[in-house]
Amino acid sequence: MTSENDWPDSLIPIIEEFKDCFDSMDRYELLFDYAKKHPTPLPPSKWTESNQIVGCQSRAHVECNLDEDGNFIMKGGADAQIVQGLMAITAIAVNGLSPTRVSQLSPEYANVMGIQSSLTPSRANGFLNMFKRIQEEATKLS
Amino acid sequence: MALDLDKIRSEFPILERKLPNGKQLVYFDNAATSQKPKCVISAMSNYYEQYNSNAHRANHTLADEATTALEMARKNIANFFGTNPDQLIYTSGATEAINLVAFSWARQNLSKDDIVVLTEMEHHADIVPWQQLSKEIGIEVRYVPIDTETFSLDMDAFSVAVSGASLVCVVHTSNVLGVRNPIEEIIQLSHSSGAKVLLDCAQGAPHEKISFDVMDADFVAISAHKMAGPTGIGCLLVKKSIMEKMAPFMTGGSMIRTVTTEGSTFQEGHAMFETGTPRIAEAIGWGAAVEWLDKFEMTDIHSHVQELASWTAGEMRKIPGIRIYGNPEDREGSGAVSFLHDSIQSLDLALFLDEGGFAVRTGHHCAQPLMDALNVPSTNRISFWIYNTMDEAKMFIEYLNYVVERFS
């Protein structure tokens, strides 16, 4: 698992941006902004039962593949903007990494960013389920 | 008579709680479970501290006290619901009560081609057991639709569906819409057609005096935890004449009369269906809850909740993008207000409201067929009870306006 000092380079400025937020509502607003900036969105027309993340109160779907250079690419989509924002940030973090590195990444970055509630499994908002799914896909693609 | 809200709230220590972000809790998730007054918590603690023992199976003092308390609770709870304790079977809640009907009565008395009528408003607890029974023995399950404009049951369709039915299973009050169904008419029409009636009163019991003998339903399912009692207990109220036609659901200790290596004989009455160690502390807690509730008129509780729901729904309708599902201004409803915003997804909205200290429900509320009928995947829901105040409702409206302005 990655430590705080070993985040992907693309994640570090995002973490800093979230650390500068005044309160939770500011962080949610920033997540809403990131939801609109998903680098590899999965449009609703491609949401299927097989790519649905189970255990999420909102509808959330991911598809993971390797690009022509063998790097990991995660496409994702969710109807809840908070989940979509977390997906966007995760995609920014993992896209272009080796699948092995993705499988070793820790979901702790959401906590460091101050989105603690997203890491509470009983909230069932899907972040941890999404992250687990991505890591399972990365392990298969390694 | 107006409720003394300051006094009532002082009996619920949890209402003083602040959330980790420092916000004062405003508890608007009462349709999921109510909070518990100190007397309920004390009654359960006192049992564990002073006379914890197994009931019905020993001659020592503690066992006698536990047995007496368990059966006294049954008497008080049955009395609260306007019936005789012989017609009350303790269950884990309304879900188990409905399953008890499916396993103990329906499997004995229904067969292939019998018809069970449900409605689109039912909680999953009142759908899945009948779907399973249909798979096992081939009963036909019919669904009465709702009118999605008025959010009420289509009673013309009900009149058709009930023809030839053996059992009608209807939710007294919808957990999603807060709509109180015309159960008197439903019972009358069902009995006229020769069908038994099972009412899911999980949502109705906290808001209306359920008088089992007067309402004349054949089965009534109730959960304690939505009406100031503890989780893990509820009951099935069932007519004695029908209970005699039920077979055991679970078998084992407590429910037997004799056991030999060749076979067993069973107790009669409710004891036949209460297998294993009873939920003693929970029953005592529920008994304390109905004793506490009996200090009030249920009509006063209902009027108070309706005032809050009606005002809040009216203010919510003024907020751009909010759509309410149900008729919270209807005087007969439970005060549950289900709603969606047209651009803020329900899960996002629930998290924003939580940040403000407001505990609200989001999701399909275990009523996916109703969600399908309404053509929505989920709703947000606020639900009031005896201890909620108009100040809380006003704070909610102010905060909801702020959230909508900021995020839509």
Compile the SSE list and pairings.
The complex is a heterodimer of chains A (142) and B (408).
Chain A: H1 12-19, H2 24-35, E1 60-66, E2 72-78, H3 81-94, H4 99-104, H5 108-112, H6 127-141
Antiparallel strand pairs in A: 1-2
Helix pairs in contact in A: 2-3
Chain B: H1 5-10, E1 26-27, H2 38-51, H3 61-80, E2 88-91, H4 94-109, E3 115-119, H5 128-137, E4 140-144, E5 146-147, E6 152-153, H6 155-161, E7 167-171, H7 183-192, E8 196-200, H8 212-215, E9 219-223, E10 234-238, H9 240-243, E11 256-260, E12 263-266, H10 280-293, H11 298-316, E13 322-325, E14 337-341, H12 346-355, E15 358-359, E16 361-363, H13 368-374, E17 379-382, H14 390-407
Parallel strand pairs in B: 1-15, 3-4, 3-7, 7-8, 8-9
Antiparallel strand pairs in B: 2-10, 5-6, 9-10, 11-12, 13-14, 14-17, 16-17
Concise synopsis of the structure shown:
By secondary structure, chain A is mostly helical. Chain A has helices spanning 12-19, 24-35, 81-94, 99-104, 108-112, 127-141, and strands spanning 60-66, 72-78. In chain A, α2 crosses α3.
